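Summary for the steering committee. The consortium agreed at its last meeting that each partner would contribute one worked example illustrating the joint modelling workflow. Our contribution is presented below. We chose a case with several input lines so that the handling of multiple components could be demonstrated. No manual editing was applied between input and output; the record is shown as generated.
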Amino acid sequence: MHALVTGGAGFIGSQLALRLLRDGQRVTVVDNLSTGYRESVPAGAGFVYADLGNPEHYRRLDEVRPDVVFHLGGQSSGWISMDGPLGDLEDNLRSTILLADWALARGCRRFLYASSESVYGEGSAERAFTEATLPRPLTYYGCSKLAAEHYLRVKAENSALQHTCLRLFTVYGPGQDLANMRQGIVSIYLAYAAKGEPVVVKGSLDRIRDLVFVDDVVGAFVAAAAEPRTIGLELNVATGVPTRLGDLIRDMVVAVGYPELAVRPEAGTPGDVMHSFGDASRLAALTGWRPAVSVREGLDRAVARYRRVSTA
Ligand SMILES: NC(=O)c1ccc[n+]([C@@H]2O[C@H](COP(=O)([O-])OP(=O)(O)OC[C@H]3O[C@@H](n4cnc5c(N)ncnc54)[C@H](O)[C@@H]3O)[C@@H](O)[C@H]2O)c1
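What follows is the complete predicted structure of the assembly.
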């Protein structure tokens, strides 16, 4: 099997590429290195530098003939999307339309897309989002992810495309970019805590998120790709466990070793929601996938990795 992993120089994509290589697959990564790093692409994977929103760049992929596409490349911050919907649209929607056409033209039908919890918008503290929840995104990012899901569905209804959209909840873990202070809730807080600085929190400490460890997310992509019954579906990738962000930060500063660290709440970012957690029982029923890593264990693993990197 030859897998194309877009965004494979980024946080989740690089770890997915590594897992696929370990599973014996041939892997090609394509990435424009806007937030990713060339050195994050695992050894053994091919690499093509290309912007997937730019039709001219597809010539660089002429030699690539994958059996399956994992499309994770894109702009992944709701906050950044609010600065300019057009940039987000290029990165998330246009890239998806162009890539699906490119894949089909090469005879590659299987296409897995990294969608997001952001398609849902505001939730509640009591009820997890299911795939039956009516999506109502509150950021341009959520709009482009939802639109990309619909474009893939319509394309699939009119072609041989076999797509699956995985709606990832809040992904965290080792390898998340602690230098990027506009992307990734856990990594932003960890970046402050690890330096022993007051943790600046944009928005309420009572916000609720569903934290999914990166290995579990990688496992979800692999499981969904292997199960034909996921074709044509949107599926949540979530733990079903709501975590209050104030509690997460408290546990994090303890794990890092600065229990006295101050927390500084500031005004929230536009479109940020109070409650978001998900029910992944549909994915579980179809594939047997279950999240294996608790927040406490995942946090310890993220902190341990930070320590190894910072003392290296
Ligand atoms: N991290 C999360 O919590 C989360 C949650 C839901 C969905 N997602 C989605 O998962 C995917 C991966 O997210 P991540 O956390 O690894 O982010 P990331 O920023 O670490 O990785 C994204 C990668 O895509 C590349 N990229 C961006 N635009 C591109 C383009 N136009 N052409 C080619 N490459 C491009 C970047 O350089 C980067 O390497 C994204 O699509 C994101 O929207 C992430």
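The radius of gyration is 19 Å. The chain has two domains: 2-171+212-240+280-287, 185-207+242-273+294-311.
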